[in-house]
């Protein structure tokens, strides 16, 4: 696919998630999920994440809170790793998860915090 929003989506996706992650995802694409991959590249990355209405730090916090609040825990580690590029600090993330606890439930926030702690520990170990 070659269109400006797709190209912008790939640029933003790489900036937020890192080249290694995007390269792995691109290599794993199949004919079955190609339309879905194009959809998320255009809509999530080329439209929502590409907007300059709020910062990437704020967008990162919103994304993590929404993932936790809706119980979509599988993507939390990926978005925790992205905080290294978006500027969202550990404190920012914990503040977002406190909102989740109050507005969506303590068990969801608790699980999200567990995933964040594990992911931050992995990130720190990889830097050593």
Give a description of the structure:
It is a single chain. It is globular and about 40 Å long. It folds into 2 domains: about 55 residues, no CATH class; about 70 residues, Up-down Bundle (AhpD-like). The termini are far apart. By secondary structure, the chain is mainly α. Helices cover about 80% and strands about 0% of the residues. This is 4-carboxymuconolactone decarboxylase. It holds the Pfam family CMD. InterPro entries: 4CMD/NDH-1_regulator, AhpD-like, CMD-like, Decarb_PcaC. GO terms for molecular function: peroxiredoxin activity.
Features:
single chain; 128 residues; AhpD-like; 7 helices; 0% strand; globular
CATH fold descriptor of the largest domain: AhpD-like
Q: Write down the overall geometry.
A: globular
Strand content: under 5%
Helix/strand class? mainly alpha
Task: Give the N-to-C terminal Cα separation.
Answer: 39 Å
Number of strands: 0
CATH architecture of the largest domain: Up-down Bundle
**Please, how many helices?**
7
Give the CATH H-level superfamily of the largest domain: AhpD-like
Helix content: over 70%
Order of helical and strand elements: HHHHHHH
CATH class term of the largest domain: Mainly Alpha
């Amino acid at each position: 696919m070659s269109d400006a929003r797709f190209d912008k989506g790939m640029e933003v996706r790489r900036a937020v998630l890192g080249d290694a992650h995007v390269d792995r995802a691109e290599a794993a694409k199949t004919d079955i999920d190609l339309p879905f991959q194009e959809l998320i590249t255009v809509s999530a990355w080329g439209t929502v994440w590409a907007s300059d209405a709020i910062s990437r730090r704020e967008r990162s916090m919103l994304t993590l809170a929404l993932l936790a609040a809706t119980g979509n825990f599988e993507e939390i580690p990926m978005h925790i790793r992205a905080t290294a590029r978006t500027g969202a600090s550990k404190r920012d993330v914990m503040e977002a998860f406190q909102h989740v606890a109050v507005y969506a439930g303590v068990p969801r926030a608790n699980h999200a915090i567990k995933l964040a702690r594990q992911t931050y520990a992995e990130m720190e170990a990889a830097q050593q």
